[in-house]
UniProtKB/TrEMBL annotation:
PANTHER family: MECHANOSENSITIVE CHANNEL MSCK, POTASSIUM CHANNEL RELATED. Belongs to the MscS (TC 1.A.23) family. Residues 674-756 form the Mechanosensitive ion channel MscS C-terminal domain. One of its GO terms (molecular function) is mechanosensitive monoatomic ion channel activity. The chain crosses the membrane at residues 189-211, 232-253, 265-287, 307-327, 339-362, 382-403, 409-428, 468-489, 509-533, 554-577, 583-612. This is Mechanosensitive ion channel protein. Residues 801-819 have a biased composition (Basic and acidic residues). It is found in: Cell membrane. One of its GO terms (cellular component) is plasma membrane. It is a multi-pass membrane protein. It comes from Agrobacterium bohemicum.
Length: 829
């Protein structure tokens, strides 16, 4: 009797649903915890970033659980369908094994359906929670940015009073901390600073070790090229700034871990170190771009005065912006009134706005007009208008009370502008080094050329790779810094990088950078293994087995195409693409193949037929249409034939299938050769035949079986015609053997007194009585036939009543000669 699903024991249920249910319990608890933390810390942007990352992970895990459960459901449905329906009442009973399996599958299906609903709910709730966090962050950012504060003289006066008190509190805190460090943390302080200096020096020494020739201007003499200026500017700015940043970061980390910093001092020290590193970076950047003291290293066409003013203005803006953040941190740490922070940002934004507005009226560009007065020129109008607009916007935002917006814009103008300038220098360096022929002139290019013997083309390709590497380095350096300056948290970038590497969905397609790279690597490895196996099989198996060259080529070509197809399939699968989804693309391509690609497909199929049937192989002497030569290469699309004049002709494979092809070496290289011979009628034919057979048997390449023979062909017009026929073991000897035989025949015929007659032709010329015999004789002499000249002179003897040639006027003679020449030319034509 069949069991009902209720009677099935719990042990009979597969663990797929149970594992999913256990994971869902943990996911629900995590979801509740995230929701509670959002309610408690909804104003902390950094905490919201972490919570959003957790919510995204939770949604991804739930979605993976749903996909796994659905896959198992499909497997169960397929299996239940294959088992069939239970027998109806009155029908013969089915085997108990089938009944038990059906009941077990139905029980698991019911449990999976129950768990599947929970998984879908968790996934949807986590996605909604992630969107809620994103909206909260946007609202928090907008509220901070567009918060309006009343700005007036009494407010600013009150802020001044509070500032004096804050300075006093800061002085007391720093004094107390210094006494604490000197009494209790002296060694820790010196150790942290020493280790930080050592770390920075190691980085600096390493940078100068590998890039010193690209960082020091003193290492070059003469007028530097634009590429050299870009290279020195980029690497000197990057390495030196990173050394200072590493020193500050290491110092902050070690001081904090060694317990040197107190909670009321640590934020101030950290921000101060960051400000110092940023100001140093801006100073190195402005020095690299404008080079106020060395005009030959200047990257922009600005005057010396303009370089000094612009570099100084940028440094002042960086200093003002950095001090604003430092003072704001001090106010937050010392719990100063909010109005004091607002007043500091107000002053800093006003100063930056005034500097930008003043720069818009500057004339920084160096004069390029040779005939001009040498005065500096204005900057482009769009740049002047942009600076003026930015300055007025900052000043206007401050005066209307939107100090937070003004501070944010001032920060972006200074920090983002500095980072973008560095990235742009890197991009210009990559573009310059990737130009044709430039990389070969660099130090690295010359070294690679000497070390590996690279020519201009490989070095040019290496230059492209170097340029691309510089692009990637510049973007990897600049993009995170720009994102940080615009308010993004490190967690945001980590989340994007994780999603980019592990996968993101576009529609129903999941794209993963790691999967794509893995697929490419799998294809490259498969391709390399295929090429290696081709060479190994050809050199170690077929070459030792003395396999025919054509067979070796066909087998190698077939293995090559098979290996590439297999490598492509594995590469596509490793990249995460479902091969079944390509069926729609293949069906769409079949329409194009039927119309636009029919010739390509025809040649491809013809190539496969030629590789399988092998009507000819590499090394064969073939004739097709007007093409005759040796087969050099046989592929699936076309065949390469080399003529005896050394010309390579690419013939589509379909021509070999659809037309007649002659193959001189299809089964063997034996060839029959013929030499026609003609002798005069007074020669003994049998003697001629004996001489020819005697001479041909002396030639070693001539086969004795079939035996050479001579055919008496015909009685010709002027001679007796014979033909010597013989077979050669290798048709490549044909020209040599026939050439030797002709020379021996001619030599032997001379010894035997056998003449080879020339063709004879009789020409009768009828001359009228008024013709000029001398003109006709001269014409025939011009044509080069002396016999005709003599015959013409005899036939054209003047009659007694004809005037002598001397009696004819010379103009008449010349006219008759030209007329006769034209007549003969017409007859010949």
């Amino acid at each position: 009797m069949a069991q009902t699903p209720d009677a099935v024991s719990e042990d009979s249920v597969l663990p797929v649903a149970q594992k999913a249910e256990a994971r869902l319990v943990k996911d629900k608890a995590t979801l509740a915890d995230i929701t509670q933390q959002i309610d408690n810390k909804g104003n902390d942007d950094a905490k919201l970033v972490d919570l959003k990352g957790k919510a995204d992970d939770l949604a991804g895990n739930a979605a993976a659980t749903v996909a796994h459960l659905r896959t198992r459901l499909d497997e169960i449905s397929t299996r239940v369908t294959s088992l069939g329906e239970p027998p109806k009442d009155g029908a013969p009973p089915e085997a108990s094994v089938v009944t038990d399996e059906r009941n077990k599958l139905n029980a698991e299906k019911a449990q999976i359906n129950a768990v599947l609903g929970d998984a879908e709910n968790v996934s949807a709730s986590a996605s909604r929670l992630s969107n809620t966090i994103t909206n909260l962050r946007r609202s928090l950012f907008a509220a901070t940015l567009f918060k309006r504060t009343e700005i007036s003289l009494p407010v600013l006066a009150e802020a001044g009073t509070e500032f004096v008190g804050e300075i006093s509190s800061l002085s007391n805190s720093l004094t107390g901390w210094a006494i604490f460090v000197w009494n209790y943390k002296r060694l820790s302080m010196f150790g942290a600073v020493t280790l930080s200096i050592v770390a920075a020096l190691l980085f600096m020494v390493g940078g100068y070790r590998f890039l010193g020739h690209r960082m020091e201007r003193r290492a070059f003499s003469g007028e530097p090229s634009y590429l050299r200026r870009l290279s020195v500017a980029f690497w000197s700015t990057t390495v030196q700034s990173m050394s200072v940043f590493l020193f500050m970061s290491a110092s902050a980390f070690l001081l904090d871990n060694f317990g040197v910093l107190r909670p009321d001092i640590a934020p101030i020290v950290f921000v101060a170190m960051s400000v110092i590193a940023f100001i140093y970076f801006v100073s190195r950047l402005t020095y690299a771009i404008f080079s106020p003291t060395q005009s030959e290293w200047r990257l922009l066409k600005v005057s010396t005065r303009g370089a000094h003013i612009i570099s100084s203005a940028m440094l002042v803006m960086a200093l003002v912006n950095g001090l604003d953040y430092l003072f704001s941190t001090i106010s937050e740490t010392l719990n100063s009134p909010l109005i004091l922070t607002v007043a500091k940002s107000f002053v800093a934004s006003i100063i930056i706005g005034i500097i930008l507005f003043a720069l818009s009226f500057l004339k920084p560009l160096a004069s390029t007009d040779i005939d001009g007065d040498g005065r500096d020129q204005r900057m482009p109008r769009w740049l002047s208008a942009l600076l003026r607009f930015g300055g007025l916007l900052l000043i206007g935002a401050c005066l209307t009370g939107y100090v937070g917006l003004a501070r944010f814009l001032a920060t972006q103008i200074v920090s983002t502008g500095a980072v973008l300038a560095t990235v742009y220098i890197g991009i210009l360096s990559g573009r310059a080094i990737s130009k044709q022929g430039i990389f070969a002139e660099t130090l690295v290019g010359r070294y690679l050329g000497r070390r590996f013997g690279l020519g201009p083309v490989p070095l040019d390709q290496a230059g492209l790779a170097a340029g691309l590497g510089i692009y990637c380095a510049a973007l990897a350096f600049g993009v995170p810094l720009v994102l940080f300056s615009w308010g993004f948290q490190p967690g945001d970038i980590e989340s994007w990088a994780y999603r980019l590497l592990t996968g993101f969905s576009i529609g129903k397609t999941s794209i993963s950078l790691i999967s794509i790279i893995t697929g490419i690597l799998v294809f490259v490895v498969g391709y390399a293994v295929t090429r290696w196996f081709q060479k190994w099989l050809d050199r170690n198996v077929m070459a030792r087995g003395q396999v025919d060259a054509g067979v070796r080529n066909s087998v190698g070509t077939g293995i090559g195409y098979l290996g590439v197809v297999v490598a492509a399939i594995f590469g596509i699968s490793s990249a995460g693409l479902d091969l079944s989804s390509l069926a729609l693309v293949a069906s769409a391509l079949s329409v194009g193949i039927g119309f636009g690609l029919q010739n390509i497909v025809s040649n491809f199929v013809s190539g496969l037929i030629l590789l399988v049937e092998r009507p000819f192989k590499v090394g064969d002497w073939v004739v097709t249409g007007t093409v005759e030569g040796t087969v050099k290469r046989l592929s699936v699309r076309a065949t390469e034939i080399e003529t005896f004049r050394g010309q390579s002709i690419i013939v589509p494979n379909s021509e070999f299938i659809n037309s007649s092809v002659g193959n001189w070496t299809h089964r063997n290289r034996i060839q029959r050769a013929e030499i026609p011979v003609s002798v005069s009628y007074d020669t003994d034919p049998q003697r001629v035949m004996d001489i020819l057979l005697e001479l041909v048997k002396k030639q070693t390449p001539v086969l004795r079986n079939p035996e050479p023979h001579v055919e008496f062909l015909r009685f010709g017009e002027f001679a007796l015609d014979f033909e010597l026929r013989f077979h050669l073991a290798d048709l490549s000897h044909g020209l040599t053997v026939k050439n030797n035989l002709r020379m021996e025949i001619l030599k032997r015929f001379h010894q035997e007194g056998i003449s080879i007659p020339m063709k004879q032709r009789n020409l009768n010329i009828h001359v009228d009585g008024d013709s000029n015999p001398q003109a006709l004789a001269a014409l025939m002499a011009d044509e080069g036939d002396k016999n005709l000249v003599s015959q013409t002179a005899t036939a054209a003897t003047p009659k007694p009543d004809m005037p002598k040639p001397d009696d004819v006027d010379k103009p008449a003679k010349d006219a008759e000669v030209e007329t006769a020449r034209a007549s003969v030319r017409n007859r010949k034509a």
